Amino acid sequence: MPLVPVIGVEGPGHKVFAAEPVTLPTIPGLEDPNTYVPADNPLTKEKIELGRAIFFDKRMSKDNTIACASCHMAKKGFADGMPVSTGIKGQKGGRSAPVSFNRVYSKAQFWDGRAATLEDQSIGPFANPIEHGFANHDEMVAKMKKMPGYRKLFQEVFGGEITIQDVGRAVASFQRTVLSGNSAVDKYDIGGDQNALSDS
Fold first, then answer.
1. Residue 139 among the catalytic residues
2. pLDDT digits over 109-120, tens only?
3. Considering 46, 131, 139, 161, which one is annotated as catalytic?
4. Which pTM value belongs to this model?
C-alpha cells in the first residue's frame, strides 16, 4: 500500500505519513470526547504497530534487559505492581511506574505532570540512568539505527531517518490505544448486564 502524506502535519525535518488512519474505539463509560491526540501525531495503524514493537523490545535499554513493557506489564494493568520499579542492573527507581492505559485522556503525564505530552513522557525513560540506562537520546537512536528493520520501518512510517522525536510519536501512538473498559463491572454498571457479576 503506498504511503500518503497527511496534510498539515509536516514539521521541521520530518513528514508524518499515514497509510491507514485509525479511530479509537468507543468504550462504555469512556465516551468522553476529550481525548488528546495532537494534530502533529495522528494515529495510524503503521505508527501504532511501530510503537508497539518499540514498547516491547528489550533492546531499547543499554544492556538489552528492560523494555517499556518490563514496568508497564499488560498482565498487571500496564503497571508493575511494585512499590518502586526496577530498571537496568536491578537498580530501584524512586517510585512505582504509573499505569500506561487510558493515556489518551490526559495531556500532561507522570504522577506530577512533569511531561507536557505523552510524546515527551514516552522518551524520558530511555535517557534515565536507572530505567533504560542510555547516557542520552542520541546514544539510543544510534543503537536503534544498527538494529535490523528499524531504519526501514521509520522510513516507511515517518518518511525519514530514526529520530528521538519520532520514537516518541510512535510509542505515544501505541500507548493511546491501550484502553481499559468492557470489564465485568463495566458490563454490569454501564451495560446493565445483571449476569456480568456473581455474588462472590
1. no
2. 877 888 899 999
3. 131
4. 0.77
